[in-house]
Amino acid sequence: MWSGPINRREFILSGAGFLFQIGRIKESLIIRSEVPADFETPIPLLDRQWLTPNDLHFIRCHLPIPRVDLNTWNLTIDGEVQQPLKLEMQDIHRFRETNQTVTLECSGNGRVYSDPPVPGLQWEKGAVGTARWAGILLRDVLNQAGVKPTARHIIMNGADVPPGSVPDFVRSIPIEKAMHPDTILAYHMNGVDIPIEHGFPLRLVVPGWEAASSTKWIVNIRVSETEADGYFMRNAYRIPNRPVAPGTAVDPKDMIPYTALDVKSVFTSPLEDSTTRIGSSIELRGFAWAGVADITRVHVSTDFGRTWTAATLDADKAKYAWRRFRHVWKPTQPGSYIAMSRATDSQGRTQPIAARWNPAGYLYNVIDKVRINVQG
Amino acid sequence: MWSGPINRREFILSGAGFLFQIGRIKESLIIRSEVPADFETPIPLLDRQWLTPNDLHFIRCHLPIPRVDLNTWNLTIDGEVQQPLKLEMQDIHRFRETNQTVTLECSGNGRVYSDPPVPGLQWEKGAVGTARWAGILLRDVLNQAGVKPTARHIIMNGADVPPGSVPDFVRSIPIEKAMHPDTILAYHMNGVDIPIEHGFPLRLVVPGWEAASSTKWIVNIRVSETEADGYFMRNAYRIPNRPVAPGTAVDPKDMIPYTALDVKSVFTSPLEDSTTRIGSSIELRGFAWAGVADITRVHVSTDFGRTWTAATLDADKAKYAWRRFRHVWKPTQPGSYIAMSRATDSQGRTQPIAARWNPAGYLYNVIDKVRINVQG
User: Fold this and answer.
1) Average pLDDT over residues B6-12
2) Longest distance between any two alpha carbons in chain A, whole Å
3) What's residue A12's pLDDT?
4) Do residue B225 and residue B94 come from a single domain?
5) A297, A230: one domain
6) For residue B307, which residues of chain A lie inside 8 Å, CB to CB?
């Protein structure tokens, strides 16, 4: 672990708990908030590879990163079960291992594009990343505890602790998603122990759903007849149950929890306001994802959205992971153009032209646009 | 003619010249400028009919409306011709009569939607209208004068006179468009003498081209080897010869004259931010036009631009006139939706999703959008 002298900034970043090695991270990522640690991946760094390296993966924390001691750590399963469990890490490793390559996206990714603006971290396009998570099936653990017929939800809590009057970050997911054979308790991220900022030693990974369901530093799973009752289920991570006019104040009771991700694509290259030359070929590329659905095609336009061409989808593929798309454009006329990308998924969904606005700026998935200047 | 007492406002509206009967017009139209008289048709008034009544047709003047006396009025044809002509109205009526139903649109219609904003009259959607123009073929007059082989353009001037240092409003069109069998010198608008504010007693009607080419109060046509040399050809009514980045200052020499209209559609009903109820059928309708091309279809979306349905095109049709489109929508869910319209023409052109910005805000033809609120 990191062992140099602690300067004030690094101490602040560690919050009330465990220090994480921020040397490379703080140079690479965009700091949206220092405490809690909310770091966005710059788009050029996402562009480099299909799997996002651990130290380039966006970081979203609601509370200070906790201190974790494996000697005392355990995961408890209680509530509507036949047999409550208290599992140490050696118990976790006795379950069969599995893995999933998953695109995790913050519900608020793209919030900065909300019009009118909405409060919250002003994420641009990079609060999303894809990693290969290894761990065990959550259902194997739940089956060992013996879920009662009354179970409808699981309520997850992490080792992170709220300071002062901040509400604890507690989320729940329906029992069906918890028992789904693809939902895992992960201990490895891209082949190594999960870094502390990503949930060491164990986190939930709920594939295809917004990232807030994938509880980090998980220490308790309570099987319940009802969903979690706190701020982060009753107020946050909810979207209006109908499209609302921009700027509307919506009562949380007229909102529903946001679960699976929508269909979306973003360009990773070129960047906004890039320059190229006529006669040169420029590769337009990016990623498209659709939560629990599959990306079936991505179309690209280079003429302000008048005409569209199917992009090539890379071979790299996993059930819950983004697809990289590519389209080579050879501009023949100088000028300033807008390239657009529009993904379509296996549920027939496609990206909208105009936003379905909501008070927290969740789900932003309007067709992506980048301006490209072509010199003569 | 109008004969009541003149109040100051009506006197101002008359400018330096002929008074026009503004009683109904000033109550119906949106005043964008009093002098010169620039009045926009409110969209609900456009919605009522395929042909726009004379007193509801938008008015665009660059200079004060001139005083016209038929006893002294004449039209001269000179320049690169075998035989210069001086025609009185009785001479005009000796040519064979023809007519054209034409959608005239101000080049700056929709300018208010430019982002970043641009200077000029801040037209919304209603600087457009359709009238049936009767008159004579311009080519018949030009043939009588005998156009020389050196002729490349005709330069048109009206009886309107610039005050002070304002440049005169003089435009030219290429000889091919002037000799086109659909280009007319009109004396009737929708069956009556052209109202003074629309060009009495004679105006050019250049079908399919931006309205600034259709010179009002025309008194001189000069056949020329070159296009007109003044402000309104060298500086105004020009668009960049390539798409430019928003906010760019573009040298007029890197611009080209704007001629034929682009493909466009606008909703005339419902209006922005309208309200309806689930279970009720609401008719979405509007007009689509494409200058010298034909409208082949109009698609409508009611789901933020994700999916599109072909609208019905009304039977009313003329070569250079807009087509009315209709689409019945029966919303089944409450909420606030965005309806969009997108026209496609016989040249394969379709409306863009994002604007090709230009310094004067000409040609705005992004797919139209109106918000519709559906109550439960």
Assistant:
1) 41
2) 73
3) 42
4) yes
5) no
6) 350
Min Cα separation A364/chain B (Å) = 13
Instruction: Please report the number of interchain residue pairs, chain A to chain B, with beta-carbon separation below 8 angstroms.
Output: 75
ipTM, 2 dp: 0.86
By the CB < 8 Å criterion, does B375 face chain A?
no
pLDDT in tens, chain A (376 residues): 333 333 434 444 444 334 455 555 667 999 999 989 999 999 999 999 999 999 999 999 999 999 999 999 999 999 999 999 999 999 999 999 999 999 999 999 999 999 999 999 999 999 999 999 999 999 999 999 999 999 999 999 999 999 888 899 999 999 999 999 999 999 999 999 999 999 999 999 999 999 999 999 999 999 999 999 999 999 999 999 999 999 999 998 999 998 999 999 999 999 999 999 999 999 999 999 999 999 999 999 999 999 999 999 999 999 999 999 999 999 999 999 999 999 999 999 999 999 999 999 999 999 999 999 999 9
Chain B contact for A369 (CB, 8 A cutoff): yes
B336 with A273: Cβ contact below 8 A: no
B35 is a domain residue: no
A283 and A216 fall within a common domain:
no
The total of other beta-carbon atoms located within 10 Å of residue A21's CB is 16
Q: Is residue A171 domain-resident?
A: yes
Using CB atoms, pick whichever of B243, B333, B354 lies closest to residue A305. B354
Long-range CB contact pairs, B18-26, < 8 A, 24+: B18/B65, B18/B66, B18/B67, B18/B68, B18/B196, B19/B196, B20/B65, B20/B195, B20/B196, B20/B197, B21/B195, B24/B55, B25/B55, B25/B59, B25/B197
pLDDT value, residue A25: 66
The string of DSSP letters for A71-100 reads TT--EEEEESBSS-EEE-HHHHTTSPEEEE
The CA R_g of chain B, rounded to the nearest whole Å, is: 21
Answer whether residue A314 is part of any domain.
yes
Contact A351, A300 (CB under 8 A): no
**Residues B87 and B227 reside in one and the same domain:** yes
Q: Could A336 and B244 be called an inter-chain contact, meaning their C-beta atoms sit closer than 8 Å?
A: yes
For chain B, the residue count is: 376
Q: Which of A335, A340, A356 sits opposite B353 (nearest CB)?
A: A340
Is the domain of B207 the same as that of B316?
Answer: no
User: Is B353 in contact with A333 (Cβ distance < 8 A)?
Assistant: no
Minimum-distance CB partner of B245 among A336, A356, A369: A336
Q: A334-338, B14-18, B60-64: lowest mean pLDDT where?
A: B14-18
Domain of A116, CATH number, reads 3.90.420.10
Same domain? For A232 and A83 the reply is yes
For residues A79 and A162, state if they share a domain.
yes
Q: Is the peptide bond before B174 cis (omega within 30 degrees of 0)?
A: no
Across residues B155-184, what is the average pLDDT? 95
Is B275 in the A-facing interface, judged by CB distances under 8 Å?
no
Q: Which residues of A194-225 are buried (b: 16+ CB within 10 A; e: fewer)?
A: bbbbbbbbbbbbbbbbbbbbbbbbbbbbbbbe
Q: What domain count does chain B have?
A: 2
Average confidence (pLDDT) over B204-230: 97
* The pLDDT of residue B3 is above 80: no
B80: domain range?
A: 75-236
Contact indicator for B264, B363 with CB cutoff of 8 Å? no
Tens of pLDDT, residue by residue over B117-164, are: 999 999 999 999 999 999 999 999 999 999 999 999 999 999 999 988
Which CATH number belongs to the domain containing residue A366 in this structure?
2.60.40.650
Shortest CA distance from B350: residue in chain A: A306
A122 found inside a domain? yes
Q: Phi then psi for A96, rounded to 5 degrees? A: -65, 145
Residue that is last in its domain, among B219, B236, B253:
B236
Identify from A262, A301, A336, A369 which residue to disrupt to test chain B contact, counting B C-beta atoms within 10 A and taking the largest count: A336
**A120, A201: one domain:** yes
